[in-house]
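Hey, resending since the last one bounced:
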Amino acid sequence: EIPTTLSCKMESCDKYHWVTQWSKCDTDCGTGKQVRSGLSCQHINGTTVNNGYCFVHTLPNETRSCTVECINVSCVDSDTICPTIAQVGGCMYQYYKTKCCKSCS
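The structure tokens again:
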């Protein structure tokens, strides 16, 4: 858990960083993204501030891509061209494998 304030002694609190765990992937099937956030707690010019508390700054969110295997999802074709895609070998591409689930199975 990320603290909102931190009481610290000068010799042990020049700068601290906290980051959350990566979020759950934002998709149920295929490629999506994960996010995490963080805080930085630091003294200014090496001096104690706010009665021994340090300033807490929000760090920019970090993102990364994630992939979730498509399981327990209704397997249907989302385009009428899917049988043809399967016949010509298009199912080797993830895009068509997802779009034409039934024909590519």
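The chain is about 15% helix and 30% strand.

Sorry for the duplicate.
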